[in-house]
Amino acid sequence: MAALPEALTAGSVQLRCWRRNFAEAMLIAIEDSLPELEQWMPWAQERPTIEGLREILIQGEVDFHADRSWEYTMFDGESDDVIGGAGLHRTDQAGRFEIGYWVRTSWTGRGMATLATQTLINAASSCLDTARQIAIRMDQANLASVSVPRKLGFTLDAYEEREISAAGHTGRGYVWILDV
User: Please, what are the averages of pLDDT over each run of 10 residues along the chain (180 residues)?
Assistant: First the structure.
């Protein structure tokens, strides 16, 4: 049994752990958002295929239940449309976990990443005895993403040099932290 629940409710959004049967709906959301995702997400540098996405989701299911990482697909609670993704990941530092997120272009600016991030923070602090700190990393140019840790009370902990692995990357990043 996984340490985190398979489903989390975040206001009008549902976070559901990755399942292979989400592939078609996720692919539509990714394709709708590809120009924006290509700017920031290394995984979006090549157009995904349905077969490749299914393999990623299957591995995500395995990792979720092995407590290596907890990846969720974000669904709108009313329409059941995929509106993005968010995940909680282990890091090399004891007690520190990292959150990543993306939001479908048609849903940006509505607080979905903030809502999903807060939900993952709550899940980590209540379900993971070892969780002491949450980190969020991003390129300094990703201004929309910067708003999430600011809204949630994270502290800017470090500036880091980063590999340029997406079109919008500058090679300079932020590391935000929050004690839980």
Answer: 93 95 97 96 94 97 96 96 97 96 96 96 96 97 95 97 96 97
Q: Are 89 and 69 in contact (CB under 8 A)?
A: yes
Supply the range of the domain harboring residue 146. Answer: 7-179
Rounded distance, CA 73 to CA 17, Å? Answer: 6
Determine, yes or no, domain membership for 108: yes
Which H, E and C letters describe 69-90, residue by residue? EEEEEEEECCCCCEEEEEEEEE
Q: How many domains does the chain have?
A: 1
The pLDDT value recorded for residue 176 is 98
Q: Which helix (H) or strand (E) holds 172?
A: strand 172-179
Whether the Cβ atoms of residue 86 and residue 92 lie closer than 8 Å to each other: no
